[in-house]
Amino acid sequence: MSEVDLSGEKGWQPFDAPALVGSSLRFVSGDPEGDRFRVSYYRKPDSALVARIWFGPETEGPPEHAHGGSMAAVLDEVLGLAAWSAGYAIVVANLNINFRCLLPIMQVVQVDTEIVSVDGRKVLVRGKIWDGQEKVYTEADCLCIEIQAV
Ligand SMILES: CCCCC/C=C\C/C=C\C/C=C\C/C=C\CCCC(=O)SCCNC(=O)CCNC(=O)[C@H](O)C(C)(C)COP(=O)(O)OP(=O)(O)OC[C@H]1O[C@@H](n2cnc3c(N)ncnc32)[C@H](O)[C@@H]1OP(=O)(O)O
């Protein structure tokens, strides 16, 4: 597979978000040279977690477009890690996704995240997969619940 450019914007800091959880977290980010997903994580100047993600040929659902489950997996990981990056040790309890447009595979897209609220153990994270310009493919609200350290 040809080189994939996952570089970030000026002012973004590369950030190894999966390392917050540990080596178990491989489903989305565990095969950086593979044909499924390739991911790079960054923190924006306001510290929000952002990811650049390439959906490879193995994520195909509709011809030449990403399987909805592959987008759900990406949102589960990135929005969950947004909470971890903000200091909350969580699991995802509810992930509510709206698929807005078919997402072409074999291109790099962006996942933006925002911590919307924290209420006791409940951390609500909102995010979207988009082209980084204007086109939104998928939006999601992710309810995370803080767990005890294991
Ligand atoms: C540097 C060292 C790091 C070491 C790390 C070590 C370990 C890491 C461990 C785990 C890492 C996990 C994930 C990593 C992060 C991202 C990766 C991707 C994310 C995932 O892939 S992660 C897998 C999928 N995930 C699950 O497999 C969850 C299965 N599930 C459960 O494990 C329980 O279900 C749990 C814990 C969620 C809650 O159980 P619980 O008994 O602790 O708490 P309880 O039920 O009392 O809920 C408390 C309050 O949340 C409200 N609430 C709960 N669930 C709700 C729902 N669905 N909708 C609306 N409200 C809900 C209640 O209504 C109540 O609200 P209120 O307080 O207001 O009454």
UniProtKB/TrEMBL annotation:
<keyword id="KW-1003">Cell membrane</keyword>
<dbReference type="GO" id="GO:0016790">
    <property type="term" value="F:thiolester hydrolase activity"/>
</dbReference>
<dbReference type="InterPro" id="IPR006683">
    <property type="entry name" value="Thioestr_dom"/>
</dbReference>
<protein>
    <recommendedName>
        <fullName>Acyl-coenzyme A thioesterase THEM4</fullName>
        <ecNumber>3.1.2.2</ecNumber>
    </recommendedName>
</protein>
<feature type="domain" description="Thioesterase">
    <location>
        <begin position="65"/>
        <end position="136"/>
    </location>
</feature>
<dbReference type="InterPro" id="IPR052365">
    <property type="entry name" value="THEM4/THEM5_acyl-CoA_thioest"/>
</dbReference>
<comment type="similarity">
    <text>Belongs to the THEM4/THEM5 thioesterase family.</text>
</comment>
<keyword id="KW-0472">Membrane</keyword>
<dbReference type="GO" id="GO:0005737">
    <property type="term" value="C:cytoplasm"/>
</dbReference>
<dbReference type="Pfam" id="PF03061">
    <property type="entry name" value="4HBT"/>
</dbReference>
<keyword id="KW-0443">Lipid metabolism</keyword>
<dbReference type="GO" id="GO:0006631">
    <property type="term" value="P:fatty acid metabolic process"/>
</dbReference>
<keyword id="KW-0053">Apoptosis</keyword>
<keyword id="KW-0809">Transit peptide</keyword>
<dbReference type="InterPro" id="IPR029069">
    <property type="entry name" value="HotDog_dom_sf"/>
</dbReference>
<dbReference type="GO" id="GO:0016020">
    <property type="term" value="C:membrane"/>
</dbReference>
<keyword id="KW-0966">Cell projection</keyword>
<keyword id="KW-0276">Fatty acid metabolism</keyword>
<keyword id="KW-0378">Hydrolase</keyword>
<keyword id="KW-0963">Cytoplasm</keyword>
